[in-house]
Amino acid sequence: MRISQLSNTRVGLLGYGVEGRSTLAALRRAGNTLPVTVFVDDPVTAATVDHSDGLVFASAREPNFDDVRVLIRSPGFAPSHTARIAADARGLPQTTATNLFFNELRAFGIASIGITGSKGKSTTSTLVARALKESGVPSSLVGNIGAPVLESLEGVIANRAVPVIELSSYQCADLESAPTISVLLQLFPEHMDWHGSIDAYYRAKMRIAQQQRAGDSFFYLKDNQAYVEGFDIPSRREAVGTEASVHWAEGAFWRGGQRLFSDECVRIPGQHNKQNVCCVIAAASAAGATLEGLQVALRGFSGLPYRLQDEGLHGGIRWINDSISTAPEAAAAALRAFQSSTRSLIFGGFDRGYEMAPILAALRESTVERVILLPTTGHRLAAELAESDIHVKVVEAADLRSAVVAAFEGTPRGGLCLFSPGAPSYGFFRDFEDRGRQFSALLREFT
């Protein structure tokens, strides 16, 4: 299904956030002047928007699809949502902005790069886009960390620019068409509440490769090898990190036996980021990036906000803000990035039931002396630390402010405090960015 085929179709939009509004605008640009029914959970949303563009607002909790011929869904609506169940039962044709975007690109023969994984998507996508730009390849960063895909579509087609797209598991779950170059970064359990199970989450991620075509390319970290082998993938696949592919060794990046360049140009810390840079090299090179362009892009990139962000010295302590960390595996990777210098770790947030083994293993190898724990996962980690052979001082804090105070009081001057929550921000903050901003604001009180 292409958006250019919907000019005379009564469309319904499930959700009216940034993506829903950009989808409406794209429909209007495509010549669709018919009324559009917008299904929303919150009636307040309907009361605060402009109804002048032929919009009809309706309840997503008790949807009536009688006047709708195609439903375009926003990614936040889980398969278990009432509206999705009702649409499925009715046999109503459904699609997403992501699918409409890729279908148009395929029709125009335009290459695209899609990047997914449990963590590292935004950083990797940003670096790929920068590498292409520095190499003189027309490209654009679109989607979750750029302009909405359908808002970008006309410019991408006009300039035949290579769009670089970060794809969440929600967006991957029902892909009908995939990027010509797909990348799968590290996988670990996430979003089981949305997908229903770990396996469903992993299967959603794999659609970025399954929906490719012969002649496309699929790059994935070698740690995913056993899982990838269980899927029928029509494209050319390559395990990044193996000696036959792009890999990092002896302080440099290599392709097979060919040394590409030193890793001194990489400014973002952590071995996991070196692995992700290997994926950057593989994907960007496949789209025309040069080695010089890659190095310039890497030298000019110090990281995105709240991703191992160095907040500098406050009260004689160096602080690292890794609010993006929403799973124990992410916190473990952050801890290993500063393994020899971290004295205090602030950890904890919304409890999704994740296993604590990854962070326990990282703590066992680290120089951490004090672990400051936030509700509610913090309570569980405190209990597991008490049963372990890991000798650290455990402080349970009521909130982020008291956690920062405890870190300030207990971290030796000249030491490093890592804020890597290893859990979602739900119920405590609006999102990980809000959590990161509040952490930064608290630190300024100790300047």
Describe this entry's structure for a reader.
This protein has helices spanning 18-29, 43-47, 82-90, 97-108, 121-134, 149-159, 169-172, 192-195, 198-210, 225-228, 271-286, 291-299, 328-337, 357-365, 377-386, 400-410, 432-444; strands at residues 11-14, 36-40, 55-59, 70-73, 94-96, 113-116, 139-143, 162-166, 181-184, 217-221, 236-240, 246-249, 252-255, 258-262, 309-314, 317-321, 342-347, 370-373, 393-396, 416-419. The chain has 447 residues and is α/β, with parallel strands linked by helices. It has three domains: 3-92, 3-Layer(aba) Sandwich (Rossmann fold); 98-299, UDP-N-acetylmuramoyl-L-alanine:D-glutamate ligase (3-Layer(aba) Sandwich), CATH 3.40.1190; 309-444, Mur ligase, C-terminal domain (Protein-Tyrosine Phosphatase, Chain A). α5 packs across α11 and α13 (328-337) packs parallel to α14 (357-365). The mean pLDDT is 94.
Topology:
Elements: E1 11-14, H1 18-29, E2 36-40, H2 43-47, E3 55-59, E4 70-73, H3 82-90, E5 94-96, H4 97-108, E6 113-116, H5 121-134, E7 139-143, H6 149-159, E8 162-166, H7 169-172, E9 181-184, H8 192-195, H9 198-210, E10 217-221, H10 225-228, E11 236-240, E12 246-249, E13 252-255, E14 258-262, H11 271-286, H12 291-299, E15 309-314, E16 317-321, H13 328-337, E17 342-347, H14 357-365, E18 370-373, H15 377-386, E19 393-396, H16 400-410, E20 416-419, H17 432-444
Parallel strand pairs: 1-2, 1-4, 2-3, 4-5, 6-8, 6-9, 7-8, 9-10, 10-11, 16-20, 17-18, 17-20, 18-19
Antiparallel strand pairs: 12-13, 13-14, 15-16
